[in-house]
Amino acid sequence: MSATTMKNVTKTEFDKFAAKLQACLRLHEEALKAEGLEDEVKELSEWIDQVSAGSVTVIEALEMHGPQNLLHLKERIALALEEQQRIAEESPAVNRKKDKEQGKYAAAFHDVSEALDQLIEASSSFNIKINKGDTGVKLVTPVEDGQPIDSGINDENRAEVAEALGSMLASTYSLYVKSLFYHWNVTGPHFHSLHNLFEQHYQDLHEAGDEVAERIRAIGHFTPGTLKAFGALSKVQDDDELPGSAEDMLRNLKKAHSVCAAEARKVLNIAEKAGDEVTVDLMVERMRFHDEAGWMLGSSL
Ligand SMILES: [Fe+2]
């Protein structure tokens, strides 16, 4: 099979799965929107349209930002599902209608995830590996620093906790930057109180980032600490521009706090299995902060 034929076959395959994903995104628009995934879906749809229309080749597109978009949405959906499960576990269904709604959303997310997987698979036949390594940044430096600590947690578990903490650190740092960005630029009749509220939050996030990073060090791993690594690892969506209003800032921050809370829960589950109570304790503290911050921001709307 010549290279050209192969490329055509793959492009057809790509188009097939891209169309399926597009249809799936449209079908489940409501559920995705309810979960605050509007921006991600919009960006991904535009990317698919661009590739399908042939304005850029699939390879060019994949080399640009496609893989990250696909993975980002997949991770956000996984987080949303985890969060829904948590809510369902913590507060047994209040009424049937809500229960039904949650089931509908879970099914929608399952569909979208499957379509994303198929497109990722089709894309991988272009020999561009679609994984977190594509960003050129490792999740967390898995290098032991030569000071093994015998705290009764085995190496494998410590590495797993460190990796999850690295991701949590990146999201915390992104939210710190976002809070600072809004603290500097908020305008409007509530300037003073919002300026101060954002300051309280970025100060806490700054300290929390330090604590999380030092926990990674205390369990024997190096921590990510570059903007490139944070950009690749963070689950918090970065701002392309300054939000148009104070209300938009509040909404963006609330969404980012819920992403961080879900991240903390993920770390907590991994740490719990590893028997790492210190990290569990730290994550409980983080969850408490994000819940409270989300409440304050939401109440200011
Ligand atoms: Fe300031």
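^ fe (ii) ion complex. Residues 1-9, 127-145 have pLDDT under 50 and may be disordered. The CA atoms of residues 149 and 220 lie 7 Å apart.
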